[in-house]
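[[Sequence with tokens]]
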Amino acid sequence: MSRQLTFAAACALLLACSPAHAGDVLLVDRVKQESATPKPARGMNMAEVERRFGAPQSRLEPRGGQKRQWPTIHRWVYADYTVYFERNRVVDVVLNQASPQEAGPKPPVR
């Protein structure tokens, strides 16, 4: 009986100390909400992205390109997302963290 009480108390303590709280904001939840927001599509070129979505807030230094197998990756940062280009084509669009409390990818390395 005392073993069961000890186990129950330990479980209750673990649940109370767990990192997931009802107040946590997850980037995944915001992605679901903002899926209707227009974002650059994979395969668009840089000129199309700039024409449709305007100039980015910043254009980060290109990365890669040391070898033929490692294409140059360009990164354009907009208010809500970062666009990743391989050479001049969109390969991915990633939502930026809205606040430090939001669990998700960190801002791009500058």
The chain has one domain: 25-103. The two ends are 58 Å apart (CA to CA). Residues 2-17 form the longest helix (16 residues).
